[in-house]
């Protein structure tokens, strides 16, 4: 509302630097608590589940494959990436939406199914408050992983989709 003729606007109080910092921290906490978590997390992960999935993957003996992976954490967005693996080695890592090469010096280095299994094992060994995973029933590769340490909001989850196997996948 604009002051009418003859009215003097009231001066706004000046806030100290400390008050600005406190408000900034509060806003950051509120924003962090608004980041969505998986709608229906998979069952709690047990070592036997991970071991069974690894055994299915190794029995399938797949060396050439492609998949998309997307990570969500209290960090900048990561993915979705399209990963192409030949003879067990990453030969291509690109942004799924544009096909542009991903700078592998930034981000996490679990781009093969075997390295993802290693990451899941490390997380399970750390005994987070919540750790969950789902695996492809036939081939065993992870399709969803979620972990969180409480009371700090340090969640991380990823999904793997569009998996295809075979040469030139």
Short descriptors:
six-stranded antiparallel sheet, globular, 28% strand, alpha+beta, 169 residues
Word description of this protein:
With 169 residues, the chain is of the alpha+beta class. The protein has one domain (47-165). The chain is built from three helices and six strands, in the order ααβββαβββ. The protein has helices spanning 17-33, 47-60, 113-125, and strands at residues 65-73, 78-86, 89-95, 130-135, 142-148, 156-165. The chain has a six-stranded antiparallel beta sheet with strand order 3-2-1-6-5-4, with helices on one face. The longest helix has 17 residues, at 17-33. Mean pLDDT is 75; it is low at 15-39.
Which SSEs are present, and which pair or pack?
Blueprint: H1 17-33, H2 47-60, E1 65-73, E2 78-86, E3 89-95, H3 113-125, E4 130-135, E5 142-148, E6 156-165
Antiparallel strand pairs: 1-2, 1-6, 2-3, 4-5, 5-6
**DSSP strand content:** 25-35%
Distance between the termini: 63 Å
Count of structural domains: 1
Helical/strand content category: alpha+beta
Low-pLDDT residue spans? 15-39
**Rg calculated over all Cα atoms:** 23 Å
